[in-house]
Input
Amino acid sequence: MKRDDNKQGENLIRQRQKGRAIVMAVLLGAFVLLVFAITIVKIKAGIAAR
Amino acid sequence: MSTASPLLPPAHWRDFLALTKPRVMTLVVFTGLCGMLAAPGHINPVLGFTAILCIALGAGAAGALNQWYEADIDAVMRRTAERPLPAGRMERQAALHFGVGLAAFSVILMGLALNLAAAAILAISILFYVLVYTVWLKPRTPQNIVIGGAAGAFPPLIGWAAATGQVALLPLLLFMLVFLWTPPHFWALALFVKTDYANAGIPMLPVVAGERTTRHQIGLYTIPMAAAAVLPWPLGLTGTIYGVVSLVTTAWFALLALRVATRTSQPDDAMKPEKALFKYSILYLFVVFGALVIDRWVA
Output
């Protein structure tokens, strides 16, 4: 009984960790794209201002 | 102090999202977006998106830090007892780290991608909400909503500053509109959840000064709020679309506020006029700010 509880608890922890890791990966990917887009915009604005 | 057990599993990502108060964020993002779109000139869509993202993240950070600080109070209020911290689904420290990290990230990104003026106003708004409103005023004075309302009034200013790099009269009037709208909006809510606030020991106006005073104050604050809403039109800062929409919607707001201000609740009162004012006040802000953008783009 206790072993089952432990296993369930461990599964829950793994599930949560996996969910958070996926969300974090998506957010980091989106951030990289955003920084890339901002950089392009700033470079273009700099060229236009010359 | 801690509301969570040390053996808690890692919090679900949805609980981190809930910490940011997404429903409150909607109005903040909308007013910030309208402030940005109503500003003169053109902002690159990527930078505009980044500015709105920063406003949203800043508001989320303020919400998370508010929930971190008020976890004990939230636990005794029915409306807030199911939030991640009082419900024991998250470690308190995780909420603190999340809030501080998000606040720093939003301000730094705003400063690097947009400009220092917008970043500074964003930082001030977060600090104001957390330190002045949540920590200082809310537990101490029934005027908490009045001064604390300034925190929610910053987004149109931030949006405008993000687009132009400076502040002008129109965004200041928009700031005043949201600032003066906050007391009638929150006191209408406080009237029908008075018991919750009393149980939590929060000195909201209906708890401290009674219903009569609160109703009078709702009526009184509606007058300068109406002036701030309509004033951009006669001052020539907006066109006819905004003028007509703000006149009509503000008149309806004033009627609902008058109904609340002049009535007395009965035992087992369903508080329908107060609920109607609270709901309409949210719609009102959406419509007025929406009209501002339409007016600007049509002009």
Notes: Chain B touches chain A at residues 9-13, 44, 46-47, 50, 53, 113 (CB under 8 Å). The CA atoms of residues 141 and 291 of chain B lie 35 Å apart. DSSP finds 13 helices and no strands in chain B. The longest helix of chain B spans residues 272-298.
